[in-house]
Amino acid sequence: MSHFSVEQLRAQFPALNETADKKPFIFFDGPGGTQMAQQALEGMTAYITGGMANLHGAFPTSVETDNLLLEGRKAVADLLHCAPEEVAFGQNMTSLAFSIARGLGAFLTSEDEVVVTELDHRANVDPWVTLAKDKNSRVKFIEVNPETYTLNLENLEEIITDKTKLVAVGMSSNVTGTVSDIERIIARAKEVNALVVVDAVHAVPHLSIDFQTIGCDVLLCSAYKFFGPHIGIAVIAASLFEKLAVYKLAPAPQQIPDKLETGTQNHEAIAGLIGAINFIENLGQGATRRERLQSGMQRIEAHEQELTNRLENFLTQLPHIKLYRAPQGFHKTPTFAFTVNGVKAREVTGWFAERYRMCIADGHFYASTLAEKLGVNPMGGWVRIGLAPYNTMQEVQLFEQGLREFLEQRVKG
Ligand SMILES: Cc1ncc(COP(=O)(O)O)c(C=O)c1O
């Protein structure tokens, strides 16, 4: 598979362009949110400058806005391989998860159990825990192995039982990058007829996703993590979506997917989302948009893998660094979390921001169950460096130089 030219790709990101008075930052916080592709920006400005409108009117900008939503759903359907009417938009992944949880209330009783994981971002934990509390249902956790940072699936049959009504699992950790064995978890959940929610927020920017093959009931993601604007996306299997009793205004549409979309949507963000998907499509090859998107994502993965190999090697061998990364043989995204002996995470990231203009994040990243279990909170959490397709080998080398310098100057012994 041929690679894309990273220089040509970088030219499509306005935030990376050097201007006379501004040197661009080096962006290593893809997991917190990527930079926006030019196509996404153009989609947004074209919608705004072309005349904005609300839906269902007789006049042209309203008709265009109706079409925009339809096009947005079709684009997402090709990206994630689902039906357009299974795609609903919302403010962000967290808000969508809470709305869906509220809608699932009718499905749960105090006899039922809900299963979540210790590895997940709390956005895929608390909506379901809140639902369980409302219904007096029991909550069980799939534990993390604290040595491998992977989910412990040995006792899956004891955790997911005939009583389980809902299983919420992340496809990939936004801290350690661990890609979980969701196939196995979903297979077990389906044996007992439980609903499955997959948080794909950290997976969609790095992996080609196939909703139909995954076989979950709900899949959630956010466009600002994959080169687009701030908007959340829910894919809900039509069979469940039809039955979902959502909280909505009486005169608002009853049919899927509109029924989940309370109030007026962020139309300009939907226009931007289409642009972001076009950006991925343009990286790939194939006869259909779905094929081009899959091939575009494979090229992104191949590029990120090259940088990952180098960075993983470097961080594993460095003294004073503890890297929280699953061993070889486990699939991972290009997201690295580490701590530096005796140094608060914020001191490291502040140093990089000041000396190297590098955007590197620190904290628990809302994976707070994992942070507590691994005892990183007293250190201010982890330092997280996350790669995106616009990152270069030179940037990775500069990070390595910076970290060596930091260790020499700040860490004794
Ligand atoms: C894995 C994961 N899940 C969920 C979320 C929440 O997404 P949103 O900001 O769209 O609510 C994030 C955000 O960082 C995330 O990384």
Give the second-level CATH assignment, the architecture of the largest domain: 3-Layer(aba) Sandwich
CATH fold-level label of the largest domain: Aspartate Aminotransferase, domain 2
Low-pLDDT windows of residues: none
Q: Count the beta strands.
A: 15
Overall form:
globular
Q: Strand share of the residues?
A: 5-15%
Could you give the order of strands across the largest sheet?
2-10-9-8-7-3-4
Structural class: alpha/beta
What is the average of the pLDDT values? 97
Summary, kept brief:
With 413 residues, this protein is α/β, with parallel strands linked by helices. Helix content is 40%, strand content 15%.
Could you explain how this protein is built, in words?
- By secondary structure, the chain is α/β, with parallel strands linked by helices.
- It has two domains: 6-37 and 298-410, Aspartate Aminotransferase, domain 1, CATH 3.90.1150; 42-280, 3-Layer(aba) Sandwich (Aspartate Aminotransferase, domain 2).
- The protein has 14 helices and 15 strands.
- The strands form four sheets. A seven-stranded mixed β-sheet has the order 2-10-9-8-7-3-4, sandwiched between helices. Strands 11-12-15-14 form a four-stranded antiparallel β-sheet, covered by helices on one side. Strands 1-13 form a two-stranded parallel ribbon.
- Helix 5 links the parallel strand 3 (113-117) and strand 4.
- Helix 2 runs antiparallel to helix 10 (267-283).
- It is globular.
- The structure holds pyridoxal-5'-phosphate.
